[in-house]
Amino acid sequence: MNEYLSTAAIPSHVDVLVVGAGLTGIGMGHHLRKLQPGKTFAIIEARDAIGGTWDLFRYPGIRSDADLYAFGFSFKTWNRDNAIADGHEILDYLQETIDENDLASRIHLGHKVVNADFSTANATWTVTIERTSDRERFDVTCSFLTSAAGYYDGDEGYSPHFEGRENFRGEIIHPQHWPVDLDYAGKRVVIIGSGATAVTVVPVMAETAEHVTMLQRSPSYVLPLPRRDPLPIFLRQVLPDALVYKITRYININKATLLYNASRRFPKQMRALVRKVNVKALPVGYDVDKHFNPDYAPWDQRMCIVTDGDMFEAIADGRASVVTDRIVRFTESGILLESGNELEADVIVTATGLNMVPFGKIPLHVDGKESILPDHLIYKTLMVSDIPNFTFTIGYVNHAWTLKADLVAQWTCRLLAHMDRHGYSTATPTIDDDPSMTRSPFIDMGTGYVNRAMHLFPQQGSRGPWVVAQDYKGDRQMLGTEPIEDSALSFKSAAAPVLAEAR
């Protein structure tokens, strides 16, 4: 699909430079065209394909873990039958968005941003880009920089040390680096992990493998969700697609909010409900408490979704099983466990997680000095203190990623319009030294891949625009309707500095 994207040289200067051509970057492109039609912009992508996550991951069964009526763009209807969509369906949806918004000429694949430096005197970013085909580097300038790079390290997934790994005679695969020619038909497969990737891969591999074992150190919450949502299928018989999408999107976003809030307020009751669902889906006498009853409260970590209960069906049919135990070491023929049992395997899949990195690992400098991100605070969930003319998108942990991406793109366009109206050349979040302001991690969850990385990210504060609340409803007000002017957002014009007062 990507042969239609731009092969032209990147302009030497653009008003807005977008880093990343995944879902976030493509959405940002739409909003810039619609809300800021006079601005020049370019979308830079290090990979040779659009799609970000949806092109990077190629493991069997790759799909969304949120329904596309919430995960889709606010401006483009999702009218396919599958609400939980396969990766290729999402890529097709993104390509349609590119075509419908004439974005192809703005997307430059195979170009990696390696450095960015903001000049206060010139109110301009100088961005160093490396062309991946020949490693040639060159500079592009922009007035405004926005990161649509997400938070996954696209270069390497997380692989903990396993004693004896080198002794295993079979294949060891990490889902982030899935070989296109991997043949596991008729083979014994062990998948290490209990997160979203593991529960996705298990039932698909179980269709042709001799047997698939999901080996977990501790359980996760797992809920079945129908691949097809009956509501929009019914509504399409009497209503146009755009209205069906709007209605279903509203309902499904509120359902997700209700589930999350109920989990936080009534953890015992929600634990019991999830357990009841699991008991019903699994064979009589199955040890649900051992394998599917975590020792943490619902939504202390993300819940895992299995479409149409496919993993439960694979377990019930005997094609898959779950083992809850700890690894002692790899052996020549499998994995030795603390219980003394050994799991024999021909293929081991290390679904052990991902590495998180801020802003595509781009070093951000201001006047030649590198910004040490953990020393900074996050402003209104999308800017960083003391870094001018820069926004970023990192989605919700309790909602669909795209909900935040839409809000960030719209707010960024509002900010650009505000700066144009008042003749401002820079906008910088600033915070006074205040000993009463406490700091905490940007994302506060019990998930391993989050905890391993939060020391790399800017932090959140304890009040005002420095709080990151993971609250879609609150963000809709803060980013969608509240004035751009704010006492914590410092504006400067080319002529003289201006500090905007709160209205």
UniProtKB/TrEMBL annotation:
InterPro entries recorded: FAD-binding_MO, FAD/NAD-bd_sf, Flavin_mOase-like
Molecular function as annotated in GO: flavin adenine dinucleotide binding; N,N-dimethylaniline monooxygenase activity; NADP binding
Keyword Membrane belongs to the record: no
Entry keyword Flavoprotein: yes
Essential cofactor(s): FAD
Keywords in alphabetical order: FAD, Flavoprotein, Monooxygenase, NADP, Oxidoreductase
SUPFAM superfamilies: FAD/NAD(P)-binding domain
Pfam families: FMO-like, NAD_binding_8
Family of this protein: Belongs to the FAD-binding monooxygenase family.
Protein name as it appears in the record: NAD(P)/FAD-dependent oxidoreductase
Lineage: Bacteria, Bacillati, Actinomycetota, Actinomycetes, Propionibacteriales
